[in-house]
Amino acid sequence: MNNSLLVVLVASGIAYGTPLLYGALGELLAERSGVLNLGVEGMMLVGATMGFWAVQRFHASTGIALVAAVAVAAIAGAAMALIHAFLVITLRASQIVSGLALTIFAGAAGLSSYLGNDLNLADNPARHQFNAIFPGTLQRWPIVGPILFGQNALVYASWVCVIAVALYLSHTRPGLNLRAVGESPASADAMGIDVVRYRYAHTLAGGAFAGVAGASFTLAITPQWVAGITGGAGWIAIALVIFAFWRPGLCLVGAYVFGALQALAPELQARNISLGPTVLWANSLPYVMTVLVLVAVSASGVRRRLGAPASLGLPYVREER
Amino acid sequence: MRIERRLRQPRWLLVAVPAASLVFAFFASGLVLLATGHNALSSYRQLFDAAFVSTGALSQTLTTATPLAFTGIAAAAAFRMRLFNVGGEGQLYIGGITAAAAGLYLGGRGGPSAFVIAAMVAAGCVGGAAWALIPGILRAFFRTNEIITSLMLNYVAGILLTYLIFNTESYWRQTKGFNASVFPTAKPLPPSSLWPGWTIHLQGGITLPLGAGIAVVVAGLVWLLYTWTRFGFEAQVLGDSPRAARYAGIRTRRKILAVMGLSGAIAGLAGASQDGDFRHLLDGDPNGLQKQLYGYSGIVVAALARYNPLAVIPVAFLIGGLQNAGNTLQGADFPSGLVGVMQGIILFSALGGELLVRYRFRLGRRVKEGVPAPEPAA
Questions:
Q1: What is this model's ipTM?
Q2: Comparing C-alpha atoms, which of A129, A218, A154 is closest to residue A25?
């Protein structure tokens, strides 16, 4: 029963959905402060590269090496986000073009590939990787075994992050301030909230999450380094924030649905199942579905009620209100 | 120090800022090279040689500059209206597919070469425009964010392109012969559908491809469209202020569709020129055409040209040189990915430079309270 296509798809949907979830949570924090960062794909890829590098170079026990690698990935992602933050918050550049620039700079043909090639990361499997943490007997339980107990530490940590971000946004002073900054920076400023500091902090936090998202590719899903390993996951994460109406809980649901869509193609191939041009439709399914869901959300008008942060994409300049 | 909005943008800044961006980008990329233990000066000398000086370098640079000119004009045409078509990559692939179909079909029937080439140009435009109209229609009628949709379609187009050659016995795939049974490959285009080139006897022969000529003509036409016609004016108004455009009675939907179609058609031309000028078959190899990322680099070209279609041509030549050198030099001294790093830094500095165009810096203390500001607010 645990090998049935449905159970495997749900279980690997959670595994494949985890980087989407981390990426979407990070983008959500940045967007809630009013900063749109289209560089998620690039930040993820640099996180993937540097996390993999750390795990190959640090000589420590598995647990310590992996924690250190995730930390390195988070710092690398945040460093990329700092470029974007400086350009759009301090220099008031176009958020859209700057985010695209970040993806070109850091992305599959940019810094992540440069570092990966220069540090000779290709062609070697990861020395440590995230494995399922529960004992085999629990994993063999019917249905819930593989789905709930067959996952690695990054998956469980992402659940903690979802709860933490949700509580942060609704129950803490800085979280409420953050929402004020995103909705109306001028009022927030008048209340004495430091708009610039909030925007920097949350853009950087978003980058750190994206870095961890990248590391979950190279340390868990496919424990090796290949240029452009994320294959557009960063862009799907940005779209997820829109589907989830800027709410962390819905990000989790969306991430797992799209994770399952991504898991479908390799799973069908492994089982030799084919339905018409399988390679074509199964591989393009996550991208096509992203477009379709985005259309459904924008056409239904829910977006206007549940709304994006009102100042999303706009620079804040105190003198130019 | 105070930052003030400029009331008038001096002309010299419009040239000086992109030029300074390039210089700064070389400086910053030099730091990246130094930080990773490479000799930046010798890398740059090799880069300059491979791009412009050594035998055959200019010819090679033209082969990378031509597609960049098309994708650059495509991006400029859309970005000018703040319509962020980042789907140039996918539109290029689809244009390549449709143009190759036209070339294989008509060329195989032995039509006159000029007619076959014209048909390929038209087919490339139609294919690219159709692919661009998907995000265009979604944006016009459902207000769907065109950035994400056009980007997602790049991946779909890439999967389709590879599928046509590697996973199915399509019209574009070579199915006869020994080689075809060993490794999947595309049908070569018949001779009458190959685009002509003109040779200049310099540097061991520089080939000017037909596509480069078409790109220059297209750049001129798009420039005329945007500076001298009502269409261009309305697109500009719509970009600067959608609300003002609506009050002025400009038909927003129609304009979005027209501009997306135009942008896609030009990106599709890049695909047609890839077939006819350079590759002479439909290149579905994931490590071939798809590794060049001409569509994304076109955005860098357009931004550095400040979305001016005429300026795209010289900028495409410079960035094309960079990309060509990256292809040629790839190796220990010149890790692959460096070109993307440099392009990214060029874009960053062009963006930062915009600040200098739009604002000016004044040294001195803040104006005392109660005293009116020396200039009215912009």
A1: 0.91
A2: A154
